[in-house]
Write a structure and sequence with these properties.
Elements lengths: L2 E2 L2 E6 L1 E3 L8 E5 L5 H4 L2 E10 L12 E6 L2 E9 L2 E5 L4 E4 L3 E6 L4 E5 L8 E10 L10 E5 L6 E5 L2 E7 L16 E8 L4 E5 L6 E8 L2 E3 L2 E3 L3 E5 L6 E8 L4 E8 L7 E3 L2 E3 L2 H12 L27
Parallel strand pairs: 1-22
Antiparallel strand pairs: 2-21, 3-4, 4-5, 5-12, 6-11, 7-10, 7-12, 8-9, 8-11, 10-13, 14-15, 15-16, 16-23, 17-22, 18-21, 18-23, 19-20, 19-22, 24-25
Protein name: Pirin
Pfam families: Pirin, Pirin_C
GO molecular function, one term: metal ion binding
Length: 312
């Protein structure tokens, strides 16, 4: 019978500027929990950004075209609409709460944003997940999931959960198709509600990020923009107690099996060695990146073939 995992520590998330300008996000990891301890999770940015307005043209993306290799990426929105284009020839929007994900593999380019009128607040997360070396150069894959694909489930009185990735208590598997064995769940707790939850066997990383309100993890207080690191290494201590205090609490669970491989990380590229990083940037300079791509100019909607499902 499972008993409670130990809370190893509670850390403050940091403030990051991923766009290189005044816009900021709250970063749970690696700023709060370093990469070695958060393995296989690389990055979690909690974003609350005010829109400058709808895209001016079909090819206008406020977050312009940029590359990724060697990771899985999920953009999960709680408010606003998401919009995405990529080198595989995908062009889609999605409502919130919904998500868009990419298993980048050997490489993708993508661009984002431009689906919300001026003044609308887009709130959500961008999460990067490492993948084992054997899958770093897989062909890329992609999915867009509307709200109905990730429904909420009541787990206890006043506690709802939305499964994003991995296995769940009701037998479902999350829509984010990750290479590594993980579980990601978004909990929403009414004031004074509580939940006892068991992390799946074999997952030796577990973190709880409180992104709204205040909570108790077992008996440890965890405030807004704080993340609790749990000891998930025991086969018998697999459970945590999560409770809200006088206000609602929104908490994200990140659980997974550690990869335990070297991480070479340069901006949007995550490989195992610096030589692999240099090879990737050489491919970019030579115009050979991404190696798998749509056979048309994917940055121009007018170039999409007639009848393409994303040519609207």
């Amino acid at each position: 019978m499972s008993t409670n995992m130990r809370v190893l520590r509670v850390a403050d998330a940091g403030v990051a500027h991923p766009f290189g300008d005044e816009r900021s996000v709250i970063q749970a990891f690696p700023m709060g929990i370093p990469t070695e301890e958060s393995d296989p999770f690389l990055m979690c940015d909690h974003l609350q950004l005010e829109s400058d307005g709808l895209a001016r043209t079909a090819d206008d993306f406020p977050i312009g075209w940029h590359p990724h290799r060697g990771m899985d990426i999920m953009t999960y929105l709680k408010k606003g609409r998401g919009r995405h284009g990529d080198s595989m020839g995908n062009r889609e929007e999605f409502a919130s709460p919904g998500m868009q994900w990419i298993s980048c593999g050997s490489g993708i380019e993508h661009a984002e944003g431009g689906a919300n009128p001026a003044g609308v607040i887009e709130e959500g997360f961008q999460i990067w997940l490492n993948v084992p070396a054997v899958h770093k150069l897989d062909d890329p894959s992609y999915g867009t999931e509307p709200p109905e694909a990730i429904p909420t489930v009541e787990l206890a009185p006043g506690v709802s959960a939305r499964l994003l990735a991995g296995p769940f208590v009701d037998g479902r598997v999350g829509q984010f198709k990750t290479k590594q064995h993980v579980q990601m769940v978004d909990f929403e707790l009414a004031p004074s509600s509580a939940l006892s939850y068991e992390v799946p066997a074999g997952m030796d990383t577990a973190m709880l990020f409180v992104y709204e309100g205040d909570a108790l993890v077992n008996t440890a207080p965890v405030g807004t923009s704080q993340i609790a690191l749990l000891d998930a290494t025991s086969a018998t201590q697999r459970t945590f107690e999560l409770s809200a205090r006088s206000k609602p609490a929104h908490v994200m669970l990140f659980a997974g099996k550690k990869i335990k491989e070297p991480v070479a990380w340069h901006g949007p590229i995550v490989m195992n060695t610096q030589a692999q990083i240099r090879e990737c940037f050489a491919e970019m300079r030579a115009g050979k990146f991404p190696p798998k791509r749509a056979p048309w100019d994917y940055k121009k909607l007018a170039a999409f073939p007639e009848g393409h499902p994303h040519k609207a």
